Amino acid sequence: MNATHRSRIAKIREKLADLELDALMVSIQENRYYLSGYTGEDAQFDESAGVLLVSASQLVLATDSRFDLQARAEAPDFEVVCYRKGLEKELPAIAANLDIRRLGFESVRLSHKNHAAYAKALQTVSPPVELVPTENLVEDLRKTKSEEEIQATVDALRLAEKAFSRVVATIRPGMTEKQVAWDMEKAMRELGAQGLSFPVIVASGPNSALPHAIPSDRRIVEGEPLLIDWGARLNEYCSDTTRTLVVGKPKDPFQNVFDTVVEARDRAIAAIRAGASGTEVDKIARDFIDKNGFGDKFGHGLGHGTGLAVHEAPRLSPIKDDLLEAGMIVTVEPGIYLPNWGGVRMENQVVVIQDGVRVLNDPAPFNPCIGN
Amino acid sequence: MNATHRSRIAKIREKLADLELDALMVSIQENRYYLSGYTGEDAQFDESAGVLLVSASQLVLATDSRFDLQARAEAPDFEVVCYRKGLEKELPAIAANLDIRRLGFESVRLSHKNHAAYAKALQTVSPPVELVPTENLVEDLRKTKSEEEIQATVDALRLAEKAFSRVVATIRPGMTEKQVAWDMEKAMRELGAQGLSFPVIVASGPNSALPHAIPSDRRIVEGEPLLIDWGARLNEYCSDTTRTLVVGKPKDPFQNVFDTVVEARDRAIAAIRAGASGTEVDKIARDFIDKNGFGDKFGHGLGHGTGLAVHEAPRLSPIKDDLLEAGMIVTVEPGIYLPNWGGVRMENQVVVIQDGVRVLNDPAPFNPCIGN
After folding, report:
1. Nearest Cβ partner of B108 from A113, A211, A212?
2. Phi/psi of residue B312, each to 5°?
3. Are B16 and B24 in contact (CB under 8 A)?
4. Over the stretch A193-225, which tens digit does the pLDDT of each residue have?
5. Right CATH for B147-370 from 1.10.3210.10, 3.90.230.10, 1.20.1260.10, 3.90.550.10
6. Which of A44, A107, A299 is opposite residue B112, by nearest beta carbon?
7. Which keywords describe this protein according to UniProt (chains A, B) (predicted)?
8. Global ipTM
């Protein structure tokens, strides 16, 4: 078995022993990949490319005929079981074969409907199988990244930055937000991205005051903020960066807002180290923004983990406190949003190391003013 | 209120009365849009752009600050409630305000974890609120389409067909499956698609024997089957079509397989009418393929509904029997898959009418041989 998967499965098996579970059913797509290498994707929320069943001594990947060959090729350490009439019908036999009494499941992914159907089906096994909700068993492992995972993230980020440089050189007043978003997507895909981490955000002028803006037909105007938030997926890992630009000469209060955001970000980054609290790091950026008179204009959390998913643990947030550990990759993305004027957000990705932080973005100085 | 939404909500309210529910919590993205016009998207399986609460007299859209302005703009008939610390914290107050005792929820979407959290939170209301699982309350309405929905689907299909014509004219031996898939995606997007219905499938030679093939770096070879399955999303509605081509002169047994699949499809289409059984329509294609000696080479169902989701009810399937009704849009997509050689699938989209069927695809004759 691949050493990476062996080590991850060993850790899951320790947790199973601690929780007195005979096996874990893994239905979250990223968790399946993390433990097996299987890349089958759930096409819709109500569709599934299969589940892993990890017991103390056995590894099963149950899926349907569409994914059978792919599962065998990608997950050679798992016994692939192909179900014809849905998992519900086959689960009792699989559980009996694996001699399972207590079966953990991922409560954040399993629907109420499937839980009820599986629980009922498992009552038919003798002795009956108990379904036990679990949370974060695999996600907790995914929080800290190996060197290979950090490198995969850096590769995705370099690709995304290259796409940005290419597109920025072509941005002119009069282009629409949608055009720029599509140019960014094309550039990433043509540079070899397997996909986007999330739909590209391009927001100009007042639209940039919405942290979650959707690219529109609004045309770019000189002197206004132009916010671009984008990420590439490469080798399954996600990048996530934001830059705010101005075409031509920035109008007030852009420079003041921009400088405040960048300094808030860099102060927060300087405070990150193994053992730091996510809430304290968030507070450093938030307090600086507050001190500069924009206290109520930064309405979201400071950052989040990235990896196989673009949003994962840990959070840098005023609400939920996560302890930072070496190997965690997080975004640091303060913003100031002034309704009817616009907003500035500047986001880097960093990896926590023992006594500090390593910024993953290109270290070249960033000048927000373009086209002058 | 928009007449379309008014009529849909009236039908949901009738169902609530039948089920003795005081309200329905709608968390499926397509269902939210169908009843309200709100297009907020759930970015990951564990993220939500909000829920609708439909009671006999009130309409609430609960979401977080990222979607607040969008929700107000798109769903003017709903009272938008913005939660700060997650729905779990706010749901008791919302339920109390709406005077709810029995609250229906969508059991196929709500996770076991959120169900447990909401159920616990709702116990704090006086009198306590009971959560009641429901299935298909909105989906059953979505199965039959209005003229506007049919037109939206036709518009998406015309766009997808135009993209296909453009790309087919450029296909040459030596191009990779991935290149063709990306060209298809670019063509759809540049013609104005809001997105894809699903990732484009391009499968050549032996790869086309996998009904669920993922585009690879395999290069197109003259004489082999080249299967393309693609769809565009436009105005929220999905198209879905498959064509199988050959570059140059087809090698045996292509023509025989192709003719069998096309006739199986067209015989099935000829049997569709309001009142027909999905399983019987499936059987007509399946029997014809069987009679021609390929009985075990057609391993999937004949078709599925399309609409706001690319896979929705009804099914044309040997396993699950759905009654066809006027206004339903379904795909008809038999295939014959010969391991190590390749496969042929030909898929049209049709709308069921009272005494027959209307094929939505371009009626021009299709010649699978290109580049001669």
Report:
1. A113
2. -150, 180
3. yes
4. 999 999 999 999 999 998 888 999 999 999 999
5. 3.90.230.10
6. A107
7. Aminopeptidase, Hydrolase, Protease
8. 0.94
